[in-house]
Structures are given as C-alpha cells and as structure tokens.
Amino acid sequence: MAQQEEFIASVTVSSDTRFLPPVVSFVRSAAHELGLKGEVAEHLDRAVEMVCRNVIEYAFESREGKYDIHVLRRPGRVVIAVEDRGIPFDYARLQSSGAMSLKEMLPRSFDDEIRFVNLGRHGNRVELIKRLPHTDIRDHVSEEEHHRVVRAPAASDDVPLQIRMMHPEESVELSRCVYRSYGYSYDWDYIYYPEHIRELQESGLMRSCVAVTPEEEFVGHLAVRVENPDSPVGEAGQAVVDPRFRGHRLFERIKTFLADEARKRGMYGLYSEATAVHPYSQKGNLKLGAKETGFLLGYIPASVSYEQISERGEGRRGSIALFYMRVNAEPEREIYPPAHYSDVIRGMVEHSGLRRTLIEVTPDTGKIPPSSVMSLNVRRDHNTAFLQIAEPGADLQRLLRLRLRELCQHRIDCIYADLPLCHPATAPAGVWLQQLGFFFGGIIPEAHSGPLGGDVLRLQYLNEVEIEAEDISTASDFGKELVEFIFQEKNAVER
Predict the structure, then answer these.
(1) Cα(233)–Cα(176) distance, rounded to whole angstroms?
(2) Looking at the structure, do residues 57 and 83 belong to the same domain, yes or no?
(3) Which member of 50, 319, 395, 466 lies 3.0 to 4.6 Å from 276 by CB, making a disulfide possible if both were Cys?
C-alpha cells in the first residue's frame, strides 16, 4: 500500500561487501534518531545487512554496480528501502540459495512487515518496515474498566448521541473506547496505540467518525482508510460499538454520516469487508445501499471468534463478503476481464451500477509488456499474503509460480492476487493465475493505485485450507449466486 511518507536520508553505495559495515552503521544511526533502539535496532541491522548482501551477490553478477538505501518515515513506522537497477530477481536461485529466500526470511520475523517489489525494467526494491515504539493504552487502563462496561445494562434509547468526525488529538479516547468495548481481543492491533492513530489522522490516511455522549465519552467509531489523502475510494472499517449501545443503530448512523463526508470530498465510494460467518453485518451494508462485489474465503483466522453466534465452521478460518458503497458517479472506463470471468463481472457491474464497458481482448488489444511490476506483502498476524500486480508482464506466470511455491512451503494459509482490470494484459494474466490454482474472489471498484486507475480484480488461492460452502452465510440472492460461482471455480482449479 502506497502511504504518505517523509524522506529522512539516503545513500548510494558501490556493490562491494567492504562497505557493508558503514552502510549498516548509517541505517542504525538514522533509525535510532527516529526512535528504534536496543534489540529492535539490532534486529533491523541484521536484516539490512542480509538484504544488501543479496543485492551485491546476485543483482550484478560479479559486475560493478551501485544500489541505493533510503530511510523513510511513515505514520507510526520506520521504513528501510533497498533499491537496485541490477538484473531482475532470480527467484529460483533465491529459493535454493538459503541465504535470502522468502522461505528463510519469513520465519525470522525481523520486521513487522516485509515487502518485495519487482519494478520491471526499473529494477528491484525491498522494504523493511518496523513499527515505532508507542504507548499501548492497554498498559494504562484498568481491566476492571472493560469488565464494568461489558456488564453494564443497556443504555436508554433517549441518550442524545452526537455523530461527528473525530479530531486527531482525541486518539487516546478512541483507544480507550476500543479497550472498554473489546478488552484485548480487537483484531486491528494498531487501534490500541493512540500516537499511531493520531499520526494516521493527521496524515489524512485515516478519517474517523465517532458517536459521542453528552459527557464526551466515545461509544461508537468507524473509519475510512485510504492509500493517499486524495484517493478516490477508501476502506470503511475499524467498526466499534460500545456494548451498552448495541441495538441503537449506531453502525447505520455512523456509516451514513461517513458516506456523506466522502461524498462531500468528491470520493467515488467506500468498500468494506463484512464477515460471512453470519449475515447480520451484510444485512447492515445492504440496507445502506452497498452492493456485494465478492467473497474472500478463509480471510479471517480461525482464532477470531464471534460471541453468541453459532459457528458452523468452528475451528476453520472464516470468510468475508466484499461490499462497495457508491457515493458519487465514477469515470466511464473500459475493462479487460479474463474470458472465464466475463459473465460474473458483467453481472457485478450491472448490479452495482458501475459505468463500465467490457472489452474482449484480441491480439491487437492484448499486447503484453515484457516485465511485470509487482509487490508482495505478507501479513503475519493473519497468515495471509497479497500479490499486488501493478502491471502484468510476460514474465508474470514464472514469477508467481516461484513466489507461490515459497509461500506454500512456509504454510501461508491464504494468498490473494490483485490485477488491474483496466490493463489489457489482465485478460491473459487471469488465465495464467487460474492455471496456478487461483480462482475468482471479487472486484474492488476504483481501488487500483497505478497510473491507469480503475478497478482491481482480486483472485484467491487456498493453501490446504478447508472451507465449505456451508460455512458461508449470505444476505441476498445475488450474494448466494456469487458464492456458488466462487465455489464452482474453486472446485474446478482443485481437481
């Protein structure tokens, strides 16, 4: 995900191992000034040396060359980016070398996130992303406060609540609201760190709407998260409702307010993820005019539970429904779906009212660039991976096959691949991914951040994860038909 960032420092280094110690020292000093110290900083030192050594040994094939190291500051995080203009990554050699393969890097967990970026003819980039140490609200709030709220009687219907946008300086109150409502169990861990939330709010990457009592106590929250402050669409999430106020239609009221704010900003729409373990969240989205645009199987770890709800797939990973809520008319666009997904995508376009023209790819329209532009993000807390393909190239199937093998060997449960629907090469790329075992997941309108913009086609791959159709709850006939299609595709690629 592209994020607003502050440039701190950079250095260009000759591809010679003699210069590794001063390079590591440079990074250590910069990271120390940004707040990384002690064992965390030492961990990052080893990671930087590993990445740089790989560049020296493999990117230039014993030829002289240069590579760049950038130190960046993103909201709540330090990022060390290593870039080179050497030969494209040889994934097969990395896999077998043992020195720098993805299989070796993942279990080390030396970062909160690691991102591999293939820039095609513009080279390679590896990002080591480390969360800055922040105050955890859970260390400063009594556990009794959480239990008191959970045990408290339901609030009266006549309590006057104000629905408004949150101010960045109120981030501590938001974190306290989450702790009071959920204790330690809220899935999005960052929300317990007020300083991190404040930075996201001030940067424009997170815009929160809250429900507030006359005593200025937060009892409800919903946020829109965006890739950039001027992104045309955002993800509505981090929903919180105080147990005392459940049944007060807070989710509906807050999301309506948030959608109005998005409309005023000129955004096209909001997308969201609703659990498919039960239909209630889906019904809430449908009531507000949102439309289903896909279902992602196994997206929720098995460790996430839903109190007072019978789980037919107990012990298995849960699934989600993708929703899109249109708030303004989006541009008219031509899209290039893979032929075997044309009918289902046409149905979703019509169902959502999107202004799209489906184009059948021919040898003239389907010219494929030689090199792919692609990044890989691994989310360790959910044991999922996202392959974000900005530009499909002729080498895509080979790159994906090797990356997929490494991810599967490391037992990553669910792997998702995003393709740009406005790129003609997506039509053949979808066929290649199907041959690798990927099947349809859904579309996310206007979510592609590349120069073409437009919609994302999300495909999915399950690595020995058991998901049954009976585990999925739907809230409409359209959703039911979509789930049936997805399982047909899943069964076809697994034969």
Answers:
(1) 28
(2) yes
(3) 319
